[in-house]
Design goal:
Blueprint: H1 19-29, E1 31-37, E2 46-51, E3 59-64, E4 73-78, E5 86-95, E6 110-116, H2 121-139
Antiparallel strand pairs: 1-2, 1-4, 2-3, 3-6, 4-5, 5-6
Length: about 150
């Protein structure tokens, strides 16, 4: 799947352990497609992905195949490029390569931390709603994956 949204890694198996661990694992393994624009132009966005566990009320952690310079102003949309994009500033960009490949993704060799800057409380509220919906979807996953 090109977007690989909503996928969870099958390598984790907690059996009948603490259900809170299962919920935490769902958040850190539920993948979300991310789209990043480095400048305000209308060029195609950089494609990356993040885990719901790396999304917070103040920022987004995502994986990209492109290095993004620290202090760059960016816009980030979650799940699809037509979604509302949120303005942010890159706090850090670190090389990420443990010879691990994310199934369904290209070589995402950079881990990027973006601090979000909302233009008004309404935009912030829209992002919080989006984030909570993603968390609910991640927590509701059931099926062959046991935690």
């Amino acid at each position: 799947d090109e977007n690989a949204g909503g996928m969870i890694s099958p390598v984790y198996h907690f059996g009948s352990g603490d259900p809170r661990k299962g919920n935490q694992l769902r958040l850190v393994t539920f993948r979300v497609p991310c789209f990043v624009w480095i400048d305000r132009g209308s060029q195609d966005p950089l494609r990356g992905m993040g885990f719901v566990g790396d999304l917070s009320e103040k920022g987004i952690g995502l994986y990209s195949d492109t290095k993004i310079s620290k202090a760059s102003m960016v816009r980030v949309a979650l799940e699809n490029p037509e979604a509302s994009a949120h303005l942010g500033i890159v706090l850090w960009c670190r090389r990420y390569n443990f010879d691990q490949r994310f199934h369904g993704q290209g070589n995402l060799n950079f881990h990027v931390g973006i601090e979000l800057h909302f233009s008004d409380p309404a935009e912030q509220q829209r992002y919080f709603i989006e984030l909570n919906e993603l968390r609910k979807r991640a927590a509701s996953l059931t099926g062959e994956f046991k935690f």
